[in-house]
Amino acid sequence: MSAAPASEEELHAFLDGQLEVQRCAEVRAFLASSPAAAARVATWRRDAEGLRAALAGIETWPPNPSLDPAVIRRRMRGRAVRRASRSVCLLLALGLAGLVGWYARGVHTGLAGLPMQDAMDAYRVFGSARTHAIEIQTPYRSMRTWLSGRLGRSVVLPDLSSRGFKLLGARLLATSEGAAAMVLYEADGGERISFYLRPAGQLNPGTKGWREDRGLRARYWYSQGYGFAVVGRADDPRTSEVQNDFPAAM
């Protein structure tokens, strides 16, 4: 009958002399029948003997200051201080990044909040488009009815024919405060003027002004909860002429 196998725990106990006499004899028989297990136990025995030899006479070893408890405590406190310093630096860096982010956000908000910026953006997208610039093209009367219905308020469309501009058409747009509309007028040479109107409940009535931005000139004003803008090319003298003629109360 073959010897009963021994677990690793039993092999360690055998090596340490912790097994009962009967089981110790069984493990010896198992090791005699298993060269691999016997080799493992022999290796463990050599390691244990080497460790005992290395620790022999430990009481005569010279003192090691690095193992002194007081030194260890000071080293641990130093590590804690360094970790705390790194944490403070990280928090300061994050705070500075946050301040920079808020500043940048403020700058962006300020730029995006320029008066009737969306009117100038709409002109850039659609004012120069030769196709699909407008979504509806009807006579004045029908145009006024259509826009008034879409915007929920009465819309007045000035006649710019005396300045050489005819009504081309209109396009509905969206803003955070509701529907907006851009009405395009076009001259025989292809030059265009846009009339833009949108809800503007956050701005004070009576606010008005002029400004130029990347080759465009806009005249804007606010009245009765709406913002209005007339936009055209800054290098076209007729832009200023039309803007000066445009009524500032719609």
Q: What is the arithmetic mean of pLDDT?
A: 77
User: Which CATH C-level class of the largest domain is it?
Assistant: Alpha Beta
Radius of gyration: 44 Å
CATH level-four homologous superfamily name of the largest domain: MucB/RseB, C-terminal domain
Unreliable runs, pLDDT <50, ≥5 residues? 99-112
Helix percentage range? 40-55%
SSE sequence, one letter per element: HHHHHHEEEEEEH
Calculate the terminal CA-CA distance, rounded to whole Å: 111 Å
User: What is the total number of structural domains?
Assistant: 3
Can you describe what's shown?
This protein is of the alpha+beta class. The protein folds into three domains: 8-60, no CATH class; 65-112; 117-245, MucB/RseB, C-terminal domain (Phosphorylase Kinase, domain 1), CATH 3.30.200.100. Helices cover 47% and strands 20% of the residues. The chain is built from seven helices and six strands. Strands 1-2-3-6-5-4 form a six-stranded antiparallel sheet, sandwiched between helices. α2 packs across α3.
Question: How are the SSEs placed, and which strands pair?
Answer:
Blueprint: H1 8-15, H2 21-33, H3 35-55, H4 69-112, H5 117-127, H6 140-151, E1 165-175, E2 178-187, E3 192-199, E4 208-213, E5 216-223, E6 226-233, H7 237-245
Q: Summarize this, please?
A:
The chain is α+β, with helices and mostly antiparallel strands and 250 residues long.
Write a concise keyword list for the protein shown above:
250 residues; alpha+beta; Phosphorylase Kinase, domain 1; 6-stranded antiparallel sheet; rod-shaped
